[in-house]
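STRUCTURE:
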């Protein structure tokens, strides 16, 4: 018996495990692969993912190792999308291998006491009113494990989703790309970047010690589960370029398509989905890892409070209410990018129009915040129109006594934070009944003298806010009850 069984040790499963352990929830993670993969899928963390990871002290180490790219692109529009000036503390995309991100997340989860079992594969599950029982295959045998909740972080072909009977509506892929991490026998024969030949386009992306080749826009294969061979990739590359470019030493060969599907329910009873298990989408914008982390961050504190019995009614359901629309927006924008990228002349008027919009500073910012999720805003209480309400609050620099700190540091323990910026004893007294769930910090914020107080959820989103011009102290207790349950004193 454990509190939470997580299936899958990808980015979603590992971050969720850390978040649950931070709250003291017993957590077992099963991962079917006995070893970490020898290949790397993704190579970036976006601005929002960095903002979120920074709220747990996890961004700094990765930023120190990666490279910063202050711009992005949208579906092949001939406009650079600019990160500086958008609502983020990290106005860039960080180039870093997904494998390295997973290593850091895994080490963090293990440090916090997660029980990670590699080489253990979920075969089936059944749930009743009180628990979920999973059948797990490991070391040639099988065992059963019971959990109060089970989180399916097991990727796009999720066994958890299928076993729980959760619908996965959407569209199948109708275009495929081949991908090969290979060496070029003669690096002079193919430039890095995009090369278009008589038969199609080949993208060559430099990677440490090898090159990632992607051949775009192929018809669906007769059997999409047939492994991709070096011969197949070689034939596709040569056909696209209309000449022979010799490939060798394949490290990883695969294909991916533009399927777009989303789970109808992120929470069904005691079974919850996060990451690719909950949504798959065209690869445009390289966002899968980032959305998986976003899901896990939203879910972690809510599931922990539910397990610990402190959650108000509806808290776990708010995971679906907040992240399903966010996932739908990811599907919409990646599908739009895929359409534009493959449109040719037919959509030229639309491309021209969008190019004009994206060339305008406000339009440029709108595109950038949409594709990175920086526009994410969850519904909070009505009452104040402050632009931070429902959003990730910026990482404010704070003065405390003679020292300094910041919002991200205050959030590192994974609890809610009430920031009293006006040394207001009445306000602090209002929150006393939630002291076991919400930390109260009295500080000053030189950059925002107009702010009197902010209530942050454990995921850093602004739940309530009061300014000198808009004193809303009356709503504080309501917001505390809404997100953290009744007061204990
Ligand atoms: C070629 C390629 C390039 C990509 N590039 C990028 C990029 O640049 N940036 C980006 O953000 N995203 C990128 N992505 C997407 C990204 O890799 C995924 O979106 C991300 O890994 C999803 O994380 P996850 O934790 O939800 O699932 P996964 O990372 O897929 O993890 C799921 C885990 O569950 C395990 N599992 C599955 N079934 C079971 C079972 N029954 N029992 C136990 N364990 C199980 C799997 O072995 C796996 O380890 C790319 C994807 C591909 C294919």
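SEQUENCE:
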């Amino acid at each position: 018996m454990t509190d939470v069984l997580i299936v899958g040790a990808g980015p979603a499963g590992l971050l969720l495990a850390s978040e649950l352990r931070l709250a003291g929830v017993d957590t077992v993670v099963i991962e079917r692969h006995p070893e970490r993969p020898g290949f790397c899928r993704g190579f970036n963390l976006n601005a929002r993912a960095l903002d979120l990871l920074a709220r747990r002290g996890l961004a700094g180490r990765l930023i120190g190792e990666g490279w910063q790219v202050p711009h992005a692109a949208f579906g092949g529009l001939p406009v650079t999308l600019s990160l500086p000036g958008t609502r983020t503390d990290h106005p860039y995309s960080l180039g870093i291998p997904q494998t390295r991100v997973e290593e850091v997340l895994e080490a963090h989860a293990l440090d916090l006491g997660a029980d990670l079992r590699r080489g253990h594969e979920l075969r089936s599950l059944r749930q009743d009113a009180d628990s979920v029982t999973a059948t797990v295959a490991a070391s040639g045998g099988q065992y059963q494990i019971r959990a109060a909740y089970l989180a399916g972080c097991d990727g796009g072909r999720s066994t958890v989703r299928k076993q729980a009977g959760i619908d996965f509506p959407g569209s199948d892929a109708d275009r495929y790309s081949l991908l090969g991490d290979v060496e070029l026998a003669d690096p002079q024969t193919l430039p890095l970047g995009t090369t278009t030949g008589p038969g199609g386009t080949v993208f060559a992306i430099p990677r440490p010690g090898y090159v990632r080749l992607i051949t775009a826009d192929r018809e669906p294969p007769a059997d999409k589960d047939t492994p991709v061979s070096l011969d197949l990739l070689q034939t596709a590359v040569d056909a696209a370029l209309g000449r022979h470019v010799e490939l060798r030493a394949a490290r990883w060969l695969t294909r991916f398509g533009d399927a777009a599907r989303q789970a109808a329910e992120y929470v069904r009873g005691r079974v919850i989905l996060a990451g690719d298990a909950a949504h798959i989408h065209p690869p445009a914008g390289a966002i899968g890892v980032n959305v998986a982390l976003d899901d896990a961050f939203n879910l972690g504190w809510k599931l922990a409070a539910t397990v610990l019995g402190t959650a108000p009614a509806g808290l776990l359901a708010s995971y679906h209410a907040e992240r399903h629309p966010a996932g739908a927006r990811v599907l919409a924008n990646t599908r739009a990018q895929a359409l534009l990228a493959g449109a040719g002349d037919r959509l030229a008027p639309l491309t021209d129009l969008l190019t004009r919009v994206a060339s305008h500073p406000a339009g440029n910012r709108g595109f950038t915040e949409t594709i990175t999720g920086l526009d994410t805003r969850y519904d909070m209480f009505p009452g104040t129109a402050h632009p931070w309400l429902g959003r990730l609050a910026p990482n404010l620099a704070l003065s405390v006594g003679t020292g300094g700190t910041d919002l991200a540091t205050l959030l590192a323990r994974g609890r809610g934070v009430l920031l009293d910026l006006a040394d207001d004893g009445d306000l602090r007294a209002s929150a006393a009944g939630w002291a076991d769930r919400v930390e109260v910090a009295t500080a000053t914020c030189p950059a925002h003298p107009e702010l009197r107080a902010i209530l942050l959820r454990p995921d850093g989103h602004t739940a309530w806010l009061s300014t000198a011009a808009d004193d809303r102290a009356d709503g504080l207790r309501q917001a505390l009850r809404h997100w953290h349950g009744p007061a204990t004193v």
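REMARK: The CA atoms of residues 25 and 181 lie 40 Å apart.
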